[in-house]
């Protein structure tokens, strides 16, 4: 159970860093991304409340593995990541910079439930 708790914390930290990355790219008006697509991506991140879910997952698993609560939070994170990944894939030309981070998040999610 300790290893599963650490994987959940790792997922939460990576989701939080992804949210920070999206916000930073939006604030800087990066030349690498289309501003309209970037605004929609930022809106999707806020719609799924990924920052809140990540901080809650960290809080729940701070000291001991809470299976029921963690599984609910992880499922919500997976749903958000799947939707965001679909949007980025459909708009790959304007949002290619986010594909690597999304790939990392997608690869972490299934390993937690094993």
In brief, what are we looking at here?
This protein is mainly α and 114 residues long. The protein has one domain (2-112). The chain is built from 6 helices and no strands.
List the helices and strands and how they pair.
Layout: H1 2-28, H2 35-47, H3 50-60, H4 67-90, H5 92-95, H6 99-112
What attributes does this structure have?
mainly alpha, single chain, elongated, 114 residues, 82% helix
Structural description of this entry:
By secondary structure, the chain is mostly helical. The chain has one domain. 82% of the residues lie in helices and 0% in strands. The protein has six helices and no strands. It has helices at residues 2-28, 35-47, 50-60, 67-90, 92-95, 99-112. Helix 1 runs antiparallel to helix 2 (35-47), helix 3 (50-60) runs antiparallel to helix 4 (67-90) and helix 4 packs antiparallel against helix 6. The longest helix has 27 residues, at 2-28. The protein is elongated.
Largest β-sheet summary: none
Q: Spans with pLDDT under 50 lasting ≥5 residues? A: none
Query: Based on DSSP secondary structure assignment, what is the total number of beta strands?
Result: 0
Radius of gyration equals 14 Å
Mean pLDDT: 90
What sequence of helices (H) and strands (E) makes up the elements? Answer: HHHHHH
How much of the sequence is in beta strands?
under 5%
Helix content: over 70%
| Amino-to-carboxy terminus distance | 11 Å
Principal-axis shape equals: elongated
**Into how many domains do the coordinates divide?**
1
State the helix count.
6
Report the structural category: mainly alpha
């Amino acid at each position: 159970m300790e290893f599963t708790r650490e994987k959940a914390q790792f997922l939460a930290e990576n989701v939080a860093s992804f949210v920070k990355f999206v916000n930073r790219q939006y604030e800087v008006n990066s030349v690498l991304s289309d501003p309209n697509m970037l605004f929609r991506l930022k809106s999707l991140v806020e719609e799924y409340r990924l920052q809140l879910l990540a901080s809650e997952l960290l809080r729940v698993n701070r000291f001991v593995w809470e299976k029921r609560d963690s599984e609910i939070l992880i499922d919500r994170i997976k749903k958000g990541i799947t939707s965001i990944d679909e949007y980025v894939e459909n708009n790959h030309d304007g949002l290619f910079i986010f594909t690597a981070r999304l790939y990392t998040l997608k690869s972490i999610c299934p390993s937690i439930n094993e």
